[in-house]
Amino acid sequence: MPRHPTTSLPEPFIPEFRSAPALRGWRRLLRWSPMGLLPLLGACTADPGNLLCQLGTALGLGGGCATTLAVGEEG
Amino acid sequence: MSAPRLALLGGQDEPEIAALRAELRRRHIDPLLIDTVALPAAGRMTFEFGRWRYEDARLSELRGLFIRRLFIHPLDPACAGPLESDPRATVAVLREKESLLRSMLTACAARGAAMINPPETLTCHFLKTETLRRLAETGLPVPDTLTTNDPGAVRTFAARHPEVIYKPLSGGAAARLLTEGDLRPERLDQLRRSPVLFQERVRGVDVRAYTLAGRLIAGGLLDCDAVDFRTTGRAFTSDPLLEGERQAAIQAARATGLTFAGIDLKRSPDGGCVLLDVNPAPMFAAFERSTGTDISGALAEHLAGLCG
Questions:
Q1: Residues of A in contact with B171 (CB under 8 A)
Q2: Considering only CB atoms, which chain B residues are within 8 Å of A18?
């Protein structure tokens, strides 16, 4: 059986696919100062429906909606 | 043991599920909620003696199922913790859950239950390249598209268009503008790791259309300069769609076999339109709020009709 060329492969072209899982994003978020979170919370208060999108942006999920990772059931 | 005629599949905290449940109850229908997010940690699903049951409900009498969320991908933010701490088990158990749900749905379909949308159509969002091919084959306008892991093909494609965007083949990241830096050899070499979908950038107003059973039930516009409107956090406003957009949305849903669909289009300054994406299980709660449209009511009416 041919081996899959898993060694010495570059990072994926899509930047979001290189980053660590969202949990690391959460840890990054928690390391921020509370003041840094205020604009995010303000945006969410203005439209709670956008909460996931704002969080997705903050967590480095491509600046998109966090739910876009639910394959086949996004949008 | 109860024998419900209607079931909603999704997370119980999802606003779309809550809105639909409320609309159905207003019509004196109490649907069974199968919490596909919490399963199997919460909720008991069993196949025994040739029959399926969920909690204390028999599933053999189901006439209709609304699928908001079915399979959880390992990259779903909800799986971030387990994926980091125990990736092998996380992937394995999600695959087992998929097998459970897919088998249950297949049995329901074999008994004649209608599904919004059938599981086999849910893949259209995952297979963006094939969906675009199918739409184009139907004669619908789609952006010039290149899906490849070939750096040379990307350079040629980029030379053909003033602006090019790129995005994943299967979702999971926003669309981005292709820059000169992206055309550097070391950057394009990254295509060896994974193919990418490239498209000519289509400028114009974003249009979202919702179709149900061959008719348009809601539509709205969002005018912004972003490559991907989802990155802006801005909401759609209620505006009438042009006749060409209405027809394109209805035909796109038909071409992809979707009873219910959320369709993304771009309106060009001359009033023409281009289809960008077809969503088989679209979110609609935030859209309803910002536009004042009634998608959950239309869905509830349709589902109530299935119960007969």
A1: 68-69, 71-72, 74
A2: none
